[in-house]
């Protein structure tokens, strides 16, 4: 809890300092997209690609350097076949022929990121309607995985004691992220953006996923 408070405090202080008297402009972002688990292998194999939604506040300086603070929700759907493959890799399930006799009940997982990013925008000199950017940042990373249970339809001695369970997990800690993107000018009040990145959470076991985001930038 103290670590989370410290992260939030540092992020709020940094945004407050940057936004005070630097002659920049305030920007608001909303996005959606898709997120894919990358590592560890259990995380990657047990969950399929899901969706993400989020929002950010940015303060862009005349130098095209921007500071952003944002909240991002990433959902990962449970993959029954992938989970059984994990059990087979661990030697818990011995054969593919046993799969039809397994009852698997599992929930999805989701990651919530509260990040402070530094973004550098590179508009081409001949046409400012299109530009590229890179971003790097970090903050608070929270991961929740719902419980998963496996049992046998028939007594075939597939699982130890006829059942296997993975408990619910809820962990949080320091996270970092970064990526590259494309920014397209629509009008004086809005842009369209698209980016691809990586987000890493340093929990008891490091978790990594790949978020692909697209959305709208709004100039008040």
Main sheet makeup? 8 strands, antiparallel, barrel
User: What's the architecture, going by CATH?
Assistant: Beta Barrel
- Global morphology: elongated
Q: How are strands sequenced across the largest beta sheet?
A: 1-3-4-6-7-10-11-12
Structural class: alpha+beta
Instruction: Compute the number of structural domains.
Output: 1
Question: Secondary-structure element order, as H and E?
Answer: HEHEEEHEEEEEEEE
Number of helices: 3
Question: Under the CATH scheme, which class?
Answer: Mainly Beta
Percent helix, as a range, is: 10-25%
**Rg, alpha carbons:** 21 Å
CATH fold type: Porin
The poorly predicted ranges are none
Instruction: Give the CA-CA distance, first to last residue.
Output: 35 Å
User: What integer is the average pLDDT?
Assistant: 86
Walkthrough of the structure:
- With 220 residues, this protein is α+β, with helices and mostly antiparallel strands.
- It has a single domain (2-218), classed as Beta Barrel (Porin), CATH 2.40.160.20.
- The protein is 15% helix and 59% strand.
- It has 3 helices and 12 strands, in the order αβαβββαββββββββ.
- The strands form 2 sheets. The protein has an 8-stranded antiparallel β-barrel. Strands 5-8-9 form a 3-stranded antiparallel β-sheet, with no helix packed on it.
- A hairpin with a 2-residue loop joins β10 and β11.
- The longest helix is centred in the first third of the chain and has 17 residues, at 2-18.
- The chain is elongated.
- The protein starts with a helix and ends with a strand.
């Amino acid at each position: 809890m103290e670590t989370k408070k410290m992260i939030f405090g540092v992020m709020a202080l940094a945004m407050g300092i940057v936004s005070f008297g630097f002659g920049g402009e305030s920007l608001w972002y909303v996005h959606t997209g898709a997120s894919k688990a990358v590592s560890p292998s259990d995380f990657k194999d047990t969950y399929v690609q899901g969706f993400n939604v989020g929002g950010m506040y940015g303060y862009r300086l005349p130098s095209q350097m921007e500071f952003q603070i944002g909240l991002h929700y990433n959902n990962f759907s449970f993959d029954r076949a992938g989970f059984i493959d994990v059990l087979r890799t661990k030697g818990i399930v011995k054969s593919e022929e046993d799969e039809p006799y397994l009852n698997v009940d599992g929930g999805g997982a989701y990651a919530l990121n509260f990040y402070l990013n530094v973004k550098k925008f590179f508009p081409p000199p001949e046409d400012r309607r299109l530009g590229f950017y890179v971003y790097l940042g970090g903050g608070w990373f929270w991961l929740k995985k719902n419980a998963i249970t496996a049992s046998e339809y028939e007594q075939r001695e597939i699982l130890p004691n006829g059942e296997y369970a993975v408990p619910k997990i809820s962990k949080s800690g320091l996270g970092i992220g970064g990526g590259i993107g494309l920014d397209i000018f629509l009008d004086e009040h809005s842009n369209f953006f698209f980016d691809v990145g990586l987000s890493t959470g340093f929990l008891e076991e490091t978790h990594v996923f790949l978020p692909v985001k697209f959305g709208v930038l709004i100039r008040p």
